[in-house]
Amino acid sequence: MRYLVRGRRLRRSPLRRRSDVVEARTLWAVVVLLLVLAPLVGVFTAWWADGSARATAREQRADRRPIQAEVIGRTSDALAMAHGGRQPSARTTVRWTEPDGDPRTATARVPAGTRSGDTVDVWLDSRGRSVAPPADSLAILQHTVTIGVCATACAVAVILLGHAVVRRTAMRRRLAEWEQEWAATEPQWTGRRA
User: Fold this and answer.
1) Nearest CA-CA partner of 28 in 11, 7, 3
2) How far apart are CA 52 and CA 14, in angstroms?
3) Residue 119: half-sphere exposure toward Cβ, Cα within 13 Å
4) Mean pLDDT, to the nearest integer, of 129-152?
5) Phi–psi pair at 8, nearest 5 degrees
6) 93: left (phi > 0), else alpha (psi -120 to 50), else beta?
7) Which residues contact 149 (CB under 8 A, 6 or more apart)?
8) Whose CB has fewer CB within 10 Å in the chain, the N or C terminal residue?
9) Model's pTM, two decimal places?
10) Tens digits of residue pLDDT in 158-191
């Protein structure tokens, strides 16, 4: 008991090899990297993704405009599908009147279950094409969290892969050292010549 201080030996063991020391120090480095570096990578990547997503949403809001349009096509035949994490929607033909009085029609994505004659909000880009609405704060938050979690997971994977490589290298070196020492010791124990 007097030789142990918080799990470390006060005197050096003659059986401890350099590869053992490297492996033990690598383990401590891996723990520090997993507890400090991996979360920092996730936080900084999420911060960058949040800024990028907010800038994209600002550009989309500047380029896109909402209009009120009347559904003139059938949506019951269209396959309802989720779009960008929003409610299920379907493509159908809609009609609206431009500010200059010209009627326009286009194919747009409308909420599933919309019937002909219903009025819906449709987003148009600067060219007059029907597009998805700009990302809202919930979509930006989901994007930010997803990117942050994925970056953290990738950092953890790289750290653990590096640790596995170091452990494998240390094990090979340890086995080679044992083989050399056994080749020198075996003739003394067994009486055989190498």
Assistant:
1) 7
2) 56
3) 5
4) 92
5) -115, 140
6) beta
7) 42
8) N
9) 0.69
10) 999 999 998 898 888 888 888 988 888 888 888 7
